[in-house]
Design a protein that fits this description.
Distance between the termini of chain C: 23 Å
Chains: A alpha/beta (429), B mainly alpha (297), C mainly alpha (321)
Largest sheet of chain B: none
Number of helices of chain C: 12
Shape of chain C: flat
Helix content of chain C: 55-70%
Helix content of chain B: 55-70%
Strand content of chain B: under 5%
Structural class of chain C: mainly alpha
Shape of chain B: globular
Distance between the termini of chain B: 14 Å
CATH architecture of the largest domain in chain B: Orthogonal Bundle
Number of strands of chain C: 2
Order of helices and strands of chain B: HHHHHHHHHHHHH
CATH class of one domain in chain C: Mainly Alpha
CATH superfamily of the largest domain in chain B: MetI-like
Number of strands of chain B: 0
Strand content of chain C: under 5%
CATH architecture of one domain in chain C: Orthogonal Bundle
Oligomer: heterotrimer
Chain lengths: 429, 297, 321
């Protein structure tokens, strides 16, 4: 394998890069960077930061953290209010709007050497971190949306792993007959961005797309996979009654562990929590299956370290920020590997897919090969300046269609009209 | 003594029991959830007491020692959230802020309420309305301007910011309630004091306040509770973990995939304790009222 | 006639008890600037945090303030029109009105009943009094966790107990049926709010002069009549305040309901208050959010008006006090 050579090459490049950047920081006085994160595993973040500070004595990092579900809103407050913010966690769904608003600047513009990481990054992650052709960040973690099922329940009932959504329906009906009231537990909260993302992931599984290359909606065509799948979901919820809604992934974990459900669709890292023998009664029974549908594709996404326009205005800050970002998201990927091994977070850095330490750590809760297979098939979403506000509008419509409060036709047409309205408003066409 | 309910004894005890269950029930659930292992709690058919009690969750919150269940094979030791360890510290933060808010409410609110109740002056009605109606604007709309204001004052991320904002949120109600109570004090008492040569201030401090202890305690308690449980501004104005209030930490725990049900419930149960202590202290002022003397005589 | 010596002014104070006692402490005309000393600290603090935010919000509601578009031009009432015509407005308004109209009276009624109960004499009284305060101490998001545990259709305690007791055969969808979910969130909300009503009503009840009850009893009044003619008039001001406050809290609250249901199923529990936040931070349209905020203010004023009219009391301005 070329892994070791790759790693050596990366280290050499990183060392060269570090040598080249040393002069810039040597004459700068001490810089304190404001690093804003959501507080997933804050202790780990603090430890990573400490390691960076030890290697870079001239730079101090001040961490401010918010909870994940408040992160976006409080960041909007911070950025609008011009509170000093230098390096942040960025998300794929906000990048275009925050970049268009002038809050973030592309790394590539100031540090062209970041381009060397491009071919070592999963394509969906690379796409997520790019806006108007320029790379805006290096990935913190990247993950996919997964179709998760209970192996034991399926085995006990002699059901094969579903390959298509028809299979899923058939399996659910069979389980329902055997006494399982709601074989599917579904994350249903119209205010959560991943409520939309999960829908897109399922559409990708069928081989469908939401938009074409010209950003025209495809889903308002009754023959489109998206339309058909919303219909499938509506039938599942309202007609066959095989779906139990749950407002958040943190509740899906205990729900699946009651043994009352067999299927769910959540972020891949939730599987790690479901299979955690420390707390879960049915740990070990859950596994990942390729997203049902002809294409077996799914949605992949990345969260990344980004540089603010504010930081970029000051040379010393900007350079220090780049060093920090590269340490955390690039270099020899030690930090990303740590997240993967210790916490089960997915990653965008291609070398890590074949890293033996990662594979060893992951085999406790997932089949690493299957994960690699699904990630290879994953695609990115369509992120534009208005995707954020459009999904905020579209999600409640999806929610209504699923439980039968509105028809699929109404919802798809309203969604398409709104998309075109926003596109025209913001891009003039 | 004021009239209490005069139901038949059995009915009275039944009502008391129902009230007890209604108030305590959910909190008692959190106590159970914190000491019964998750595997037992979510078993179906339900078998809650089959595995005994565990105090590992509390031990983790206070000492960081991993619960024993994480030592077994197959357990992913990384999958436990350190956010739970912030609970004790943030509890202290919230208590400090809430106590300060309570003090501000009494010190600033009581004199104002008394002036509205007993003094006549130009603009009295307007000032009263201004204070009371300030609460009409929904908090959600105030988030942005409050943020900008606090940032301009340089107080972003400090406990002072929260004390100020929570006081602003509670003062209107304090002033309103206390003005109602102050008006209830029979005027003969106050007149007698004035005749004896008291200044207004003396009258207020030596006679009115002691007579109003129940209502002062009640509004003080109200201010404490609101500040302790307040979430929106605590979130928007909070800074790093050192100053973070409890409500923000708790909200984070509730939606965290790495927080087991047991740890979450342990945090919930801990969060309730300061209020219980405060109530136990303050209660006798509210009800075993020192409302004697002037009224009966 | 006694002459008051304090305060540097000589005033005639009505001596005979037959004269209305109000003509003394209360009826000081023209006290000048002295009272302002008493109210200034509170007033200044509140005004500092009210005037600027209200002005800012008003200004924002009249301009186009959208993150994705540059500039902030004046657009008059366009935001208001957009909000009123939007698809979310009517259902959210109805939900919020229903929620408020059910929760506020329930809170006050329950508080009144609890206050009476706690003032009665029975063994264990202190214990019950102490625990009554518990629901009030929890942030909304946390109470939501507990009530989800109780109401959850699949693993909730309520269904478990009812099932074990043989009262139901199938689990009841407390949180997933659009009708039932509205009841569930009201129950949870009332649980978090009734303690403060109870506490304040207890304080109000203890302030009633027992002699009034004695007099009524002597006149032969029964228990209900004593309540209606002695108790209620004395606490009416407090009841009005509590109703108004409970209504405002219910109308503008969101965290408990949102944490329990996410606004669902469908739109069954989406509340107007949350839409203010959503318009600003999710739809990136702060102008709309501000306009909706002012619409909410107007509706709240309507509540206050209605309540104060329905229950006249000496709360907002007597002739003298």
């Amino acid at each position: 394998m070329t892994t070791r050579r790759q790693l050596f090459a990366i280290s050499a490049l990183a060392a060269a890069g570090a040598l080249l950047t040393v002069p810039t920081t040597a004459h700068a006085q001490d810089v304190t960077l404001e690093f804003v994160v959501w507080n997933y595993s804050l202790e780990t973040i603090q430890d990573n930061v400490k390691k960076f500070e030890e290697l870079n004595p001239g730079i101090k990092i001040n961490i401010t953290d918010y909870t994940w579900n408040d992160y976006h809103d409080t960041m909007v407050l911070r950025l609008r209010g011009n509170t000093q913010t230098d390096v942040i966690y960025g998300g794929q769904d906000w990048l275009p709007s925050w970049a268009a608003a002038g809050w973030l600047v592309p790394l590539e513009e100031h540090f062209p050497e970041v381009a060397k990481y491009k071919d070592r990054t999963a394509n969906y992650a690379l796409s997520d971190m790019t806006y108007q052709g320029k790379l805006y960040g290096l990935s913190y973690y990247a993950d996919i949306i997964s179709f998760i099922y209970n192996k034991k329940i399926l085995d006990d009932h002699g059901i094969a792993v579903p390959e298509t959504w028809e299979d899923v329906l058939a399996a659910s009906l069979k389980l329902k007959e055997a006494g399982m009231e709601k074989p599917i537990v579904y994350e249903y909260d119209q205010e959560l961005p991943n409520f939309y993302d999960a829908f897109v992931a399922q559409v990708y599984g069928r081989g469908g797309e939401m938009f074409d290359e010209n950003l025209e909606p495809l889903f308002n065509d009754p023959e489109s996979e998206a339309w058909k799948h919303l219909q499938w979901l509506q039938d599942a919820f309202s007609k066959h009654e095989i779906v139990a809604p749950e407002t958040h992934e943190s509740k899906i974990i205990p729900a699946m562990n009651t043994g009352k459900h067999a299927f769910t669709i959540v972020f891949n890292y939730v599987l790690a929590a479901m299979n955690n023998a420390a707390e879960q009664p049915r740990a070990g029974e859950f596994d990942l299956a390729l997203m049902p549908g002809a294409a077996h594709s799914t949605l992949g996404f990345a969260k990344f370290y980004a540089l603010t326009a504010q930081a970029a205005q000051d040379d010393a800050r900007r350079d220090a920020a780049w060093q920090f970002i590269e340490y955390m998201g690039g270099g020899d990927y030690q930090i990303a590997k740590r997240w993967a091994v210790e916490k089960g977070l997915g990653f965008a850095q291609l070398p890590l897919f074949d890293d033996p330490d990662v594979q060893a750590a992951w085999s406790g809760w997932i089949d690493p090969e299957k994960f690699k297979q699904q990630a290879t098939l994953a695609k990115n979403g369509t992120w534009t300046e208005w995707t954020g506000i459009w999904t905020a509008y579209f999600r409640p419509l999806l929610a209504q269609a699923m439980i039968g409060e509105a028809s699929v036709a109404e919802v798809m047409e309203a969604g398409a009209a709104k998309w075109v309205e926003y596109r025209t408003l913001l891009r003039g066409n | 003594m004021p009239e209490g309910a005069r139901l038949g004894r059995p009915l009275l005890y039944l009502a008391a029991l129902l009230l007890f269950l209604f108030s305590v029930g959910p909190v008692f659930l959190s106590l159970l959830g914190s000491v019964i292992p998750d595997q037992a709690l979510f078993s179906f058919p339900a078998d809650w007491f089959g595995r005994g009690f565990t105090y590992d969750n509390y031990r983790y919150i206070f000492t960081g020692e991993l619960p024993r269940s994480y030592e077994i094979r197959g357990a992913n030791r990384g999958m436990i959230s350190d956010a739970a360890r912030q609970v004790p510290g943030s509890m202290v933060n919230s208590m400090a802020v809430a106590l300060a808010v309570m003090a501000v409410n009494v010190v600033l609110g009581a004199p104002a309420a008394y002036a509205f109740a007993r003094m006549r002056f130009r603009g009295r009605r307007l000032a009263f309305m201004a204070i009371v109606l300030s609460r009409l604007v929904p908090a959600m709309a105030l988030a942005v301007p409050f943020y900008l204001l606090i940032q301009a004052l340089g107080l972003l991320g400090t406990k002072t910011a929260l004390i100020l904002v929570h006081s602003v949120l509670t003062l209107p109600f304090t002033v309103l309630i206390l003005s109602v109570f102050f008006r209830r004090i029979p005027t003969e008492i106050e007149d007698a004091a004035i005749v004896d040569g008291c200044t207004r201030a003396q009258l207020f401090l030596r006679i009115v306040l002691p007579l109003s202890l129940p209502s002062l305690a009640a509004t003080g308690l109200f201010a404490f509770m609101l500040s302790y449980a307040e979430f929106l501004f605590a979130l928007v104005l909070s800074g790093d973990a050192a100053n973070r209030p409890l409500s923000v930490v708790m909200a984070s725990l509730a939606r965290n995939v790495d927080v087991s049900w047991g740890i979450l419930n342990s945090a919930i149960f801990l969060a309730v304790l300061p209020s219980v202590v405060l109530v136990a202290i303050v209660w006798r002022f509210i009800v075993e009222g020192i409302l004697v003397g002037g009224v009966k005589g | 006639m006694r002459v008051e010596a304090g305060g540097g002014r000589a005033r005639a104070v009505g001596a005979p008890a037959s004269r209305p006692p109000r003509a003394t402490v209360a009826a000081r005309s023209g006290e000048g600037a002295y009272p302002w000393l008493w109210i200034l600290p509170a007033l200044a603090l509140v005004l500092l945090f009210t005037l600027y935010p209200v002005a800012h919000t008003l200004w924002t509601s009249l301009h186009r303030v959208m993150i994705l578009l540059p500039g902030e031009p004046f657009i008059g009432l366009a935001n208001y029109r957009a909000v009123l015509e939007s698809a979310f407005f009517a259902p959210a308004l109805l939900n919020s009105l229903w929620f408020t109209a059910t929760a506020a009276p329930l809170i006050v009624l329950l508080g009144l009943g609890v206050a009476h109960l706690l003032l009665a004499d029975f063994r264990g009284r202190f214990l019950v009094r102490s625990v009554v305060i518990l629901p009030w101490a929890l942030p909304g998001a946390i109470s939501a966790v507990l009530w989800i545990w109780i109401f959850h259709p699949s693993w909730g305690i309520l269904n478990l107990v009812l099932y074990e007791l043989g009262l139901i055969e199938r689990y009841i969808p407390w949180l997933t049926d659009p009708g039932l979910v509205r009841v569930s969130v009201v129950v949870a909300h009332v649980w978090t709010q009734f303690p403060f009503a109870a506490v304040l009503l207890m304080a109000a009840l203890t302030a009633i002069d027992p002699q009034l009850y004695e007099a009524a009893k002597i006149d032969g009044a029964g228990r209900w009549q004593r309540f209606r003619f002695v108790t209620f008039p004395q606490i009416k001001a407090m009841v009005v305040v509590l109703l108004v406050y409970a209504a405002l809290v219910a109308f503008t609250s969101y965290d408990l309901v949102y944490a329990m249901t996410g606004g669902g199923p469908g739109t069954a529990t989406t509340l107007l208050s949350f839409q203010i936040w959503k318009e600003s931070f999710s739809m990136y349209n702060f102008g709309n959010g501000a306009a909706l905020a002012f619409i909410t203010v107007l509706i709240s004023l309507g509540f206050i008006f209605a309540i104060v009219r329905a229950l006249p009391s000496d709360l907002f301005g007597d002739a003298d006090a």
